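Weekly sync, protein design subgroup
Attendees: M.S., D.O., the rotation student, P.L. (late)

Item 1: inverse folding check
M.S. brought a backbone from last month's batch and wanted to see whether the design step gives back something sensible before we order anything. D.O. pointed out we never logged the input encoding, so this time it goes straight into the notes. Structure tokens as presented (158 positions):
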């Protein structure tokens, strides 16, 4: 099995899942966030940032493409590639992100990045279920993302 599915009933639940997720991060993780507008991707990113103790609260990065948040322990790169093609994302500084051992990359609308970043990444698909209810499916593709997904699954199902 290379998937785990979570259901959240509110934005608060999504942020709780994000906080649990953030507690497992060590740096070097890459996470692709997919789903329609309003599905909770940015809510999830805000929850991760808060749990990591980052002072600024992320907002949608749609207009700036990438935002960087940093403290002594981590550097969070929040990327939002809504409406961009693969050819338009070459100059965002991915080499720098990948060289930073403390970096955590959270990418919304990530498909233009798929061939530029390592294959071992966690992919989270957000699905609207009606009202504030969401289904969040985690798919992993390598040992780092597998360990992260399994830890989150175990933590959430205690």
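Designed sequence read out in the meeting:
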């Amino acid at each position: 099995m290379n998937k785990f599915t979570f259901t959240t009933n509110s934005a608060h639940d999504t942020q709780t899942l994000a906080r649990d997720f953030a507690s497992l991060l060590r740096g070097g993780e890459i996470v692709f966030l997919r789903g329609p507008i309003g599905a909770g991707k940015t809510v999830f990113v805000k929850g991760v940032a808060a749990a990591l103790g980052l002072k600024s609260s992320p907002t949608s990065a749609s207009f700036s493409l990438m935002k960087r948040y940093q403290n002594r322990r981590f550097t969070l790169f929040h990327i939002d590639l809504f409406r961009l093609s693969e050819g338009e994302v070459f100059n965002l500084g991915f080499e720098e992100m990948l060289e930073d051992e403390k970096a955590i990359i959270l990418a919304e609308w990530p498909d233009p990045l798929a061939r530029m970043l390592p294959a071992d990444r966690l992919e989270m698909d957000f699905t609207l279920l009606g009202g504030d209810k969401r289904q969040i499916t985690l798919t992993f593709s390598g040992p780092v993302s597998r360990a992260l997904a399994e830890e989150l699954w175990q933590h959430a199902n205690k």
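Discussion: The first helix runs from residue 11 to 22. The chain has one domain: 3-83+91-156.
Action: P.L. to compare against the previous round before Friday.
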